[in-house]
Each structure stands twice: as structure tokens, then as C-alpha cells.
Prior knowledge:
The chain is mainly β.
Amino acid sequence: MISVILNGEPRQVRAGSIADLVASLGLDAKKVAVERNREIVPRSTLADVALADGDALEIVHFVGGGC
């Protein structure tokens, strides 16, 4: 387990890629935007970017709907 800041909250998560984290949160990687340490991570590279202890992540997911 490693320590990260996820959307402003300290969390313990499994080491792995950002895609692994997104999946563990029950989110669809095709419908998220991720910022890691104040830099946008291209969606096509989420599986290639390894999480590191102390990373600060912001994850937003897109929700459909409307009138």
C-alpha cells in the first residue's frame, strides 16, 4: 500500500497504475480525467503511469444526463 492524496483527501491505495486505481474506484477509464501532481495525464497513458507514494491526484468523471 502507498499513501496518496486523492481529490484532496489522504488515502491508502494499492501500488499499481493510475488505470488500476480508477478501476478500483469503480470508474470507467474512458470517462475520467486525471491530474497527477498538477499535470494532466493523457487517458491513453493511464495504464502506463505508475502511482508513487505521495502522489497528489485529482480524478473527475463524466456523468451523462440532462433534459
